Amino acid sequence: MDLHLKIWRQKDNQSEGKLVNYDLTALNPHMSFLEMLDTLNEKLIIEGDEPVEFDHDCREGICGQCGMMISGLAHGPLKNTTTCQLHLRSFKDGETVLIEPFRAEAFPVKKDLKVDRSAFDRIISSGGFVSINTGQAPDATAIPITHQIAEEAFDSAACIGCGACVATCKNASAALFTSAKITHMVLLPQGKEERGSRVLNMVKQMDAEHFGHCSNTEACEVECPQGISVLNIARMNYEYNRALLFRKK
Asked: Given pLDDT bands bounded at 50, 70 and 90, which one contains residue 249?
């Protein structure tokens, strides 16, 4: 199959970027989207041009590094799919594909399709952890957690921090990411000790990173590759108000 690509090229955060056209022919429809970009970069290197920078690591839908906007959609047209799991069979022969980096003030472009998502790391560092000494891993039946609670915590913990929620939100909100990290810990016994300080610190850091407010459109859940529920945001709001109410003066 053949594809016409319009790719955002930008030297660094201080330079102006632009869309550049590329044509690829005789592509295998079973190639992944990132393998297609690898093919393009091999072509550019052979021709003496600079390859396209893009983030990737595991290429198994786990690490969350491969995020980019594909024809206006975070990670592309398939629901609950990361960019690395997207294949060319999802596109039509001869189709024009627009490829851009995630757009958000808190995600400055480093180069081409590569953005700086360290704002997420700083939110985690502000409170997304358990500081108590839990010792060695206990037996699975030693901690009194119901199956339902364990499943809910696991569903929230499935967030891979790719940033699709931020990129697709019209306000560039990180509410879904932050709430998922807060929820999966507050549901478990180990995380309840710091539940108040955690939510206050993480929300404060989220605001300091210049993420926007939740837009209530639920677009973040729709384009999240893990299908993280917006119910996490409701729980974060509850935990935040609870922490304010019981905060020590």
From this structure: low
Residue whose token pair is 């295998």? 28
Mean pLDDT, residues 58-84 taken together: 95
The fold of 3-111 is Ubiquitin-like (UB roll) (3.10.20)
- Whether 225 shows a pLDDT value over 90: the answer reads yes
> 123 exposed, middle or buried (CB, 10 Å; 0-12, 13-18, 19+)?
buried
On average, the pLDDT of the chain sits at: 94
* Domain parsing of the chain, residue ranges: 3-111, 117-133+141-246
Q: Is 69 in contact with 100 (CB distance < 8 Å)?
A: yes
* Closest-CA residue to 225 (of 68, 103, 3): 68
Residue 9 and residue 19: Cα distance in Å, rounded?
6
Give the closest residue to 184 by CA, choosing from 145, 214, 216: 145
Q: Is this structure's pTM higher than 0.90?
A: yes
What CATH number has the domain spanning 117-133+141-246? Answer: 1.10.1060.10
Torsion-angle region of residue 227: left (phi > 0), alpha (psi -120 to 50) or beta? left
pLDDT in tens, 113-143: 999 999 999 999 999 988 877 677 777 677 7
d(CA 211, CA 179): 13
| Confidence label for 25 from pLDDT (cuts 50, 70 and 90) | very high
